[in-house]
């Protein structure tokens, strides 16, 4: 299952991407790319490169846009099959569609892949946690089916220290340091 940081990054980058604000989408994806690891990092790098390519296209840098899309597809091929965060075929298809539009000279209409599974697997509860180690605030992300009675480990997006998070059946959220 995809990490909360990965899911939050998808949401943060998707909004500007769909609005055609590709530079802002690039920045949002890159912020998350810095904190996740493994295949999640590779997928976010694909999204960073895709958004950057679209921004380059807007600036009239077609060659740079095509090179960035080629790098995105190369990075996507390194993601293991069965990655449980996005539908890789739908994402690859959307990037290839953008490539085709650039090469053919057609109007570029990058579309977020609706079937890609790039919708949140987690829902934000109306609660922000304070990291018990550094005090940073971050949203609670819990799978919908686990919203009552969930218990999991969450790494702080700032200090990266793990905390135990428990969502009580009444909706109260408890957080405590794991090393205490």
Structure, described:
The chain is 45% helix and 17% strand. It has a three-stranded antiparallel beta sheet, with no helix packed on it. The chain has a two-stranded antiparallel ribbon with strand order 1-2. The protein has helices at residues 4-18, 22-33, 38-58, 62-77, 88-104; strands at residues 123-130, 137-142, 151-155, 162-167, 173-177. Mean pLDDT is 83; it is low at 119-123. The chain has 180 residues and is an alpha+beta fold. α2 packs antiparallel against α3 (38-58) and α3 (38-58) runs antiparallel to α4. The radius of gyration is 18 Å and the shape is elongated. β4 and β5 form a beta hairpin.
Tally the beta strands: 5
Instruction: Give unreliable regions as ranges.
Output: 119-123
End-to-end CA span: 27 Å
pLDDT averaged over residues: 83
Number of helical segments with 4 or more residues: 5
Q: How does the helix and strand content classify structurally?
A: alpha+beta
- The best one-word shape is elongated
- What about the largest sheet? 3 strands, antiparallel
Spatial ordering of strands, largest sheet: 3-4-5
β-strand percent reads 15-25%
Order of helices and strands: HHHHHEEEEE
Give me the Rg, rounded.
18 Å
- Summarize the amount of helix as a percent range: 40-55%
